[in-house]
Amino acid sequence: MHCRASIAGSIAITLLVATSAFTQTNSAVASGEALFNLRCKSCHEPAVDRAPTRTELAVRAPANIVQALTNGAMAPMANGISPVEIQAVATFLTTVQPAVVEEANRRRPAPTPIGTDRLCATHPPIKARAGDWSTLAESESNDRFQRNPELNVADIAKLKLQWAFAMPGGGQSTVVGDWLFITNRGAKFYALDAKSGCVHWAIEDAGSRTTPMIVRTPMSPSGWATFIGVTGRSVRAIDAQSGKDIWRSEPLDEHRSAVLTGTPVVAGDQLFVPLSSGEEGAAGQETYACCSFRGSLVALDLKTGKIQWKTFTITEPLRPTRKNAIGVQLQGPAGGAIWSAPTVDQKRGLVYVLTGDSYTDLPTKGADAAMAIEMKTGNVRWSRQVTENDNYVVACKSPGRSSNCPLPEGPDFDFGASPILFELKNGKQVLVAGQKSGLVYGFRPDDGKLLWTTRVGSGSMHGGIEWGIGADDRYVFAPNADTALLVDEVRRKLGAQRILINDDPPRPSLSAIDPATGKIAWQVPAPIAPCKYAGDRSSDLALGECVRAQSAAPAVIPGAVFSGTVDGWMRAYDSNTGKILWEFNSTAQTYDTVNEVKNHPGGSIDGMGPTIAHGMLYFMSGFNGAARVGGNGTNVLLAFAVEGK
After folding, report:
1. Whole-number Å distance between alpha carbons of 510 and 466
2. What average pLDDT score do residues 171-189 get?
């Protein structure tokens, strides 16, 4: 897909580990340079597609680079080299080189400090309340609809900032009672007080891209458990009250590029975990034997974490194909990553997933597909591919394209958002899915028959529909990004080469769709509004330019839809008409955070979107998502309440 958040954002190397004690000698620098030139340079110097530049790498911590090459998205590129050699690459990249560092600092200030935790004075027991938001999307149907928000439409205009909290790579929060839970890529998993932002507990070694799902269960000493996907391709079950481990699963996939990006979902006594990968990033290097990863859904026993079954999205046999320009044997088919949380259908005993693109030019029906998998057996009930030959790996749209690039080359129009199981007024149901192509689909849940298709945007490699859609009892709400088309507008202004070759107009917007027919009830373009990326550490292309892509998932309450844009604005729309009821520019000010960071900047709103619970609105500003535009070294979680109280 987008290199999701992108796993190209994963090429952004943001996970932290303890710094190695190797000495930075001249010989280490020399050997690291040789390895960098062989395995990395073609993507980073100059940077292609979504990869960070050489100057960006120069100001990162050595441990970040070691982590990325050891267990992160770039692990496939380090296959066959020793830990000493990996450290040498990190040493070379981060050894002080005045010209490089000066250029990096000129373009982007150093990351904002992550602050000091302020512990809560008391830690009362977790108590569920009506209006909790305990999962990624608030319900099994994945509609992102908060039915008991304790927030009236008339009060939305009175929303004001109550507190802010700094953290690196933060995701979406969940709320149960007065407790808020949030993971981030800086390896620190927090339980905060939802009203004040003070810290109940923090786990230091739980770097995660998934949203913590909070479940009442007797398996946990406190009666409450949370489940997150972590580095090493495994899942951790944690007591939500104490932060102590209950169990850790074995690695769910042996492939070195496999990662967990989609949130694990609990249904009954099972936990469903989607597998995605960074292989489409690694495949941009000609030294890499592209490609062999296959997306999958894994069912775990909720009490023990043991694997019950694993179902792959690509079923055609893996076989060798051609050799690339330097003689490396290629293989396939591969791809079909599951980037988003699955959707559970208890009535039919099914779990629905949407899949990513293909990495090779060998045909497969498992990429860009909607699939229904039986919860108890893992058998595929039905599968429907919507885009054939969407074959894509990173760096294929750059001048120095790799000979690993598939032919024909696809548009990178895969799925990154979870489907919604919508119940119509006549009692029938429709499975609604939004694609990076800018298309929204309605499928019949029983057999996958395509009922309707609706276009809401032009589509691009960064969406189209990127991270999520939402729904109430009347409409499905589809934010559309068209990010790459908007970035091309910036590139043209700067005289830089365009990413895309088509001239389709960008259509960033929010649309309301009738799920019975697929007809658009209303569509509101993303406004052109003031924006200033302060401390931007994203793509060189932007250089302070903002893009109004509407890529983040929305949140819905009765009468209103909350949706953010990459230029840092959060807005509330009237769900019946699309009229903008309230808006907040998160880049227009800085924030003194609860964890003692002064003058923290805001930035892009991208990724998993806002959470609404108990009269409060929570969202992350500064997230460096798939487009790598508007992100800061550290993000800020913003919490709003009526009149800020």
Report:
1. 12
2. 92
